[in-house]
Amino acid sequence: MELIHIDEELKQQQIDLSLAYLTFEGIYVKREKTLILKNYTSEIMRKVKCAYHLDSLKEDQIIRYYRDFYWHYLNIDPTKTRPSSEALIRRILADKPIPHISNIVDLNNWVSIQTKIPLGAYDLDCLNLPLTLRYAKEGEEFQPIGGKITYLKGNEIILSDLDNNIIHLYPHRDSNVTKITNKTKTMLVTACGVPNISDIGLKRALKIFKDLLGRISEIPIKSSKITLICS
Asked: What stretch of H or E contains 167?
């Protein structure tokens, strides 16, 4: 059984969305950083500062694809609400720290920075599967991590579970209810694609995450194969 499917109404819009995902069992969430994670984040920060500048970042091809998606399909101004990976890169270029949360959340953020692909990580035990990628309904509630409950307008694209709990506002904000905590033992990780983002790019982002998670983990972790769904 597929853990995630795309709603027929959304498919009919022919937006060319794609989403890749995989699951993990036996993860151990901790506050302390391993040396491997420290070295990885330092190297990615160095590469970002060498490769980009604040005034020209918007011209990067991948960043441009996500910005275009915001403008044309979500009616969101990407200069006010940044794509999540772009927002993280901008923090580095502005010499602002990337918040340290935990080994898992940090890894999620830094792989997003490296690949420029927005990743989402969710506590699998908090989800009633399967999940559906669909349009929101007017008035549905969503509580983002670090934010207050908001009421959706109905034109947003969301990821919801079988109980219609919204776990993700596509492709940039995750729910506070299903976030990764120190109690998390099983996890779903997604890579969010938009028109012109290659399937290979999505799978590559998840493979990087999977490989690094295996390296920073102190105990063996069981993971599923990467699955790709497309509209």
From this structure: strand 166-169
pTM attached to this predicted model: 0.95
Taking the C-alpha atoms of residue 56 and residue 49, their distance in angstroms, rounded to an integer, is 12
pLDDT the model gives residue 218: 78
Give the homologous superfamily in CATH for domain 4-230.
Phenylalanyl-trna Synthetase, Chain B, domain 3 (3.50.40.10)
Q: How many residues make up the chain in this entry?
A: 231
DSSP 92-116: HHTTPPPPP--HHHHHHHHHHHHH-
Domain residue ranges in the chain: 4-230
Q: What pLDDT was estimated at residue 199?
A: 96
The pLDDT-based confidence of 219 (bands split at 50, 70, 90) is: confident
Q: Is the CA virtual torsion 114, 224, 228, 166 positive or negative?
A: negative
